[in-house]
Amino acid sequence: MDEDILEEMQKYGSFLEQRGLNLSSHSGNMSVRRGDRIFIKRRGAMMGDLTEEDVVETGIAEDDSGVVIASTEIGVHRAIYKETSALSIVHAHTPYAISLSLVRDQITPIDDEGQYHLKKVPVLDVEESIGSEEVEERLPPILQDYPAAIIKGHGTFAHGENLEEAYNWITVVESICKVIYLVENLGGETSREVEW
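Above: the chain sequence. Below: its structure as tokens.
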């Protein structure tokens, strides 16, 4: 395996852990595409302490190599790579985004920084949110138009040209959701006109 891929996954896995962007230590996943190969976090690996054994290499096309121990979201990652220009994906169980997704159909930023980056964050409501064929079918078309989306009650998927960009979108979405949550709990108004 390319040492650079491991180092990048370790770096951003550690960032996710340090910033509290995953609800539990072993949750979430990330992957990097190199040609027709995917390097993805192993199922059950600790996000903030990844080792070489925690990164699984497999194909974008359905193949058996590594699938047994790859993240349960391997099918979703494959579908995103097949249908978008993504070269990296980060999926995190982001607490504020999950919370808001349970009460909103989409997230509209109310803060200036959030609006600068995103006009809205789609929320995808599915029957089975974890590694399901429904997510594989319905999420990639959304990610053709948006850098990130929230699976209702599950967490945020973000993509980019590299892990840094995908990680950035995770932080942007969580920041937007946190500001909304804080303003609502301070008794403030959270419906704001957005200029398109």
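The domain at 3-185 is CATH 3.40.225.10 (L-fuculose-1-phosphate Aldolase).
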